[in-house]
Amino acid sequence: MKFDIKEEQLIIKPYENEGTIQVREQKGRYQGLRRKLSWLLMIIFMLVPFIPYNGQQAVLLDISEQQFRIFAITFWPQDFIFLAGIFMVAAFALFFVTAWLGRVWCGYTCPQTIWTLAYVWVEHRIEGNRNKRIALNKKPWTLEKINKKAQKHIIWFFMSFVTATTFVSYFVPVVELYSNMLSFEWSGLVTFWVFFFALCTYGNAGFLREKVCTHMCPYARFQSAMFDKDTLIVAYDPTRGENRGRRKRKDDPKELGLGDCVDCNLCVEVCPVGIDIRNGLQYECINCALCVDACDQTMDKFGYEQGLISYTSEQQLTGKTSPKFSYKLFGYASFTLLITALMAFWLYSRIPLEVSVLRDRNVLYRVNYEGHVENIYTLKILNKNQQAFHYSINVQGLDDVSVNIPDSVLIGAGKMLQIPVTLATDGYNLTKKMTDIRFVVQAVEQPETMLVKETVFFRD
C-alpha cells in the first residue's frame, strides 16, 4: 500500500489555539456505562467525608496534626513508606491497565473527563445542542445571549464550589468546615484553598478541557511506552470504511465504489479532544468510545454492521488475533500483586506505637547520694491508635534496677508523651563500663502492641 505524503504534512507546527471544542451529545452503550460509573464515582467522592467511624470522621487527611485517618488506621509521618508503596501500586496498576485496555482510565474514571463532560451536559441543557451553541457564540451580545451565558457560568461555578468544598473536607473536619461556612467564619487559609480549587475546577472543566489532556497531562506523553500491537484501543477500520463518502440510505456502496464510512463526521463532532479517529492512532485519544457509539448509531441507520469504529488492537485490524495475555501484561500484573501483597503484609504487621529513647546529653552517668550509678533517659512514646491506652514501661538487662516511673502511663489517642526516666543500680552489679539494656513499652489493654528499644547503661 502506497501513501502520498505532502511535504507540509511533515512540518511540526507549534501549538495554536483552536478555540473551544463544541462536543455533540451522544448516547449509546459505552456512554451509558461511562455515565453510570461517573455518577458512582462522584457520589463516592461527595459522601466519603460524611462517613462517621467511632464518633469521628472516617477519612480525614489532617495535615495540621500530621496524621491521616482512614477508618480504624491512622498514618503518621513515620509511615511515609506506606504512602510510597501506595503510589507504586497505583503506578504499576496503571501500567497494567494501559498495556491491556489502553487509556480507559482517561475515558471513564479520570476526574478531568468526568467533570468536563458534566460541564458540557450543563452547557447543552442551557445553550442547546452543538449547532445551537456554535451559532450562539457567533451572535452579537444580546440579552438572550447574556442570560444564557450567565446561567451557564453561575451553575458551573456552583459546581466548582461544591467540588472544592468537598475536596477540602478531606483535609478539614467536615463538621467544622460546614458549620463555619454557614456562620461565615472560615479562616483565611480555608477560604483561600476552597476558592483556589474552585477556580481550578472551573478553569479546567469549563475552559481548558481537552488542553489539559493533550498539553498538560504527562500520561498522554508516556503512554506510548506501554502500548503494543495487542493493546486494546479505539480504532477505525480503514479496509472496511474506505473509500469514505456520502450516500443515500438505499444506495449500494459497492456500486458507488465506497466503503462503509458515510463521512457523516459525527465521530469528530462527539470527540471531547477534537480528533478524527479515522486518521489512525493518536496520543490525544482518551478511549472514551463516544465515536464508537456515534458510528454504531450511523451504521444502524444505514443497515450496515456495527464496529466500523470499535475497541480493537492493531493486530486485529490486520486480521490477526491478539493473545489474551502477554509477558508484558504478566510482568505488570506480577509487580502490582507483589507490591500490593507487601503493603498488605506491612499494614498487617504494623505496630500502632512509636518509641524513641534519648539519653541525657549533659552527662553519661552520675552517682547519687546512696552510691548508686544513675543514667537519665527521655522516652518519647507516640500512641498511633484512635483510642487512649495505658502503657507499661519495663527495663531488661539490669539486675536490681530502680526506675522512677509508675506502673503505667495513660496516653491519649494520637498523642505523644515525653517521660523522663532515671535508672539507678549498684555499680557492683555491672561488669562492664557499657551494659546493653532494653526498654519494653507495652499497651496494658492491648498486650500485642509492644515495642522494644535498645540502648546502653554507662558506669565509671
TrEMBL record:
One of the Pfam families matching this protein, by short name: FixG_C
InterPro entries registered for this protein in UniProt: 4Fe4S_Fe-S-bd, 4Fe4S_Fe_S_CS, Cyt_c_oxidase_cbb3_FixG, Electron_Trans/Redox, FixG_C, Helical_ferredxn, Ig-like_fold
Domain of life, per lineage: Bacteria
Keyword Repeat: no
Membrane-traversing stretches: 37-55, 80-101, 154-172, 184-202, 329-348
Cellular compartments per GO CC: plasma membrane
Name of the protein in its database record: Cytochrome c oxidase accessory protein CcoG
Keyword Electron transport in record: yes
GO molecular function list: 4 iron, 4 sulfur cluster binding; metal ion binding
Residue ranges of every copy of the 4Fe-4S ferredoxin-type domain listed in the record: 252-280
Upper lineage: Bacteria, Pseudomonadati, Pseudomonadota, Gammaproteobacteria, Alteromonadales
Organism name: Litorilituus lipolyticus
Gene3D superfamilies in alphabetical order: Alpha-helical ferredoxin (1.10.1060.10), Immunoglobulins (2.60.40.10)
Swiss-Prot/TrEMBL keywords: 4Fe-4S, Electron transport, Iron, Iron-sulfur, Membrane, Metal-binding, Transmembrane, Transmembrane helix, Transport
